[in-house]
Amino acid sequence: MELQAPTRLAIPARRVERVAVHGVLLLNKPRGLSSNDALQKARRILHAKKAGHTGTLDPEAHGLLPLCFGEATKFSQDLLDADKTYEASVRFGIKTSTGDAEGEVIATREVTHDQKALQLACERFVGPIDQVPPMHSALKQGGVALYELARKGIEVERAARRVQIHAIEVLSQTPDSAVLRCHVSKGTYIRTLAEDIGEALGCGAHLTALYRTQVGPLSVADAVTLEQLSAVQNPAALLAPVDSLAQGLHAVRLSENEQDRVRQGQRLIITDDFDGTVRMYGPDGFLGIGQLHQRRLQPTRVLNLKE
């Protein structure tokens, strides 16, 4: 009688239980990793149920990427709208098809400017400017990302957008390159800014590296790497509190009764005469964000930490 090999039972993969984690991870994202990949890696380390990022950082860029978990995701839009600060490495005299080092060289010119000329060129772009988004960007047109069209050799007309350049500082300079610190409004494309400065100097330019150092009130100095996150026994302890996203807002303090009413979404009359968006605190701590006008406080986003 022929003996049959014993049947091997498939052992199902162990399912990792997701838990409710609330807070903000200030991640120092490395080069070569997309923002979504960085988010998913951090989410797996934290076993978090709910997560989101506050706007993408290009895969080849590195630096501060705030990630929101749990109830913090309610406030991610505030960082999408926040100003950003970058350190941009720029190479003069060479234009590329993408505006950065990933593209093909499409033009070369002699570099003749000095330190003063670079400073004056940078100053020309400080203030409100109209900027045309680059084809190699995640901006969508007709539901398709521009970079996808660009990869097919298709170029479409893009409307200029008004952005605000708060400051450009020359951190270092060589005959054909510079590192610029750029403090800008949301929606600003640094590669386009670098190209425009190169055109103003008459030599062209492209971006060779991009490092984001600040998003709103948050700084890369307080950020951690994925390696640091995975190395600690309790990675959730490295999360900043939810209200770190709202530190730039005026704070109002409420009583226990007012706290309970805010949690029910009720409008209050309070003594604070500030007008605008505010962060709300009660005896239990941070409650959320509201709109205050003529002493009338309307809650707009309220925490729910029952999970």
UniProtKB/TrEMBL annotation:
Every tRNA pseudouridylate synthase B C-terminal domain range: 191-243
Class in the EC hierarchy, top level: isomerase
Single Gene Ontology MF annotation: tRNA pseudouridine(55) synthase activity
Organism of provenance: Piscinibacterium candidicorallinum
Identification of the protein by name: tRNA pseudouridine synthase B
Ranges for domain Pseudouridine synthase II N-terminal: 43-190
Source species taxonomy: Bacteria, Pseudomonadati, Pseudomonadota, Betaproteobacteria, Burkholderiales
Keyword Isomerase attached: yes
Domain of life the protein comes from: Bacteria
Residues annotated as the enzyme's active site: D58
Protein task: Responsible for synthesis of pseudouridine from uracil-55 in the psi GC loop of transfer RNAs.
EC number per UniProt: 5.4.99.25
Domain spans labelled tRNA pseudouridine synthase II TruB subfamily 1 C-terminal: 251-303
CDD domains according to UniProt: PseudoU_synth_EcTruB (cd02573)
Entry keyword Isomerase: yes
Keywords: Isomerase, tRNA processing
InterPro entries listed in its UniProt record: PsdUridine_synth_cat_dom_sf (IPR020103), PsdUridine_synth_N (IPR002501), PUA_sf (IPR036974), tRNA_psdUridine_synth_TruB (IPR014780), tRNA_sdUridine_synth_fam1_C (IPR015240), TruB_C (IPR032819)
Family: Belongs to the pseudouridine synthase TruB family. Type 1 subfamily.
Catalytic activity reported: uridine(55) in tRNA = pseudouridine(55) in tRNA
